[in-house]
Design goal:
The protein is of the alpha+beta class. It is built from 11 helices and 9 strands. GO terms for molecular function: acyl-CoA dehydrogenase activity; flavin adenine dinucleotide binding.
Amino acid sequence: MSETTAPAASGPDREAEELFTESVGDRAGEWDRAGEIPRDVLRRLGARGLLCAQAPVVHGGLGYTSRRNGELTAHVGSLCSSLRSVMTSQGMAAWTLRRLGDAGQQAALVPRLTGGELAAVAFTEAEAGSDLSALATRLTRSGDEIVVDGAKVWTTNAAYADLLVVFGRTEDGVGAVVVPASAPGIRIERITDAHGCRAAGHADIRLDGVRVPADALLRGVDRSSALLVTTALSYGRMSVAWGCVGILRGCLTAAVRHAVGRKQFGTRLADHQLVARHLAELLIAEQNAARACEHASDLWDRGSPDLVTAVVLAKHVAATGAAAGAARAMQVLASAGAHDGHVVARAHRDAKLMEIIEGSSEICELILAQHAVATA
């Protein structure tokens, strides 16, 4: 078994996991160094509905529950965090269309995402991250068209995308519009020096007088800013959290194999107490992250009102655990894991990015603190 190969599933998702495993093979390090995943790989997986598996069957999806999709996401995260990031972006776009689009928009757009086309959610701006009120992008009505003007930064999957779901300000508040990535007035600039998830298609986007039909504006324009934030970010946070479970599983597997196979002073590394502590802490982090994700996904599938807080908690526990766990794995492997493209070297960079995206660790802590105060 290669360093990027996770154990096969024993349940009904074995075929899906095997498709991802075969698609990645031993190429994750190569993709990371090149900063690109072959588009044919993404389109092939997308056409199987695997990049947004929670999309309903009626729209060409697989109809996965959050829990089932989460386990698949963790598997992909153990193989390649860049591919998992594309999966998160695709799923986030599909979820946003389902939550904010009317029936006609859902029927027209979601099947495109389950049929092989790729999508990115353009949310973050230079001065607007989790704070939606700071959005500067404008969505202006002009007759039977919407004119889009603005700039987005660090948009995952934008370099591969066929469609962009762009959030911006309208006359009535905040809305989202679906824009073809090839539309006149759009300039997409790939980020070539990303610290983590180098092959996830991160890009900055400039939109200058981009015109789309008025019906490209999702009906979420009439919803509150807070609900739009929740809709756009909750799926992303849940997916990132499960992806971090995968990062931890990949690190734990690599660290244990190395510690069992290498000797120092005539003793296996795994039998040195200080090294054993690193392995124990990695296992603890993986178990904590998995349980937090399972709980949040179960609440998601039940439609519980406690969902939002549980998702934030899962994202925080999993991301911070992955960052600390990757550092421990790096310590155990030492120079053996320090090669560019190695599963642990990638995890060390990728996990740090997970503490920042979809709500930084500090934002998560603020939300959790507010919840604690409100429920005291």
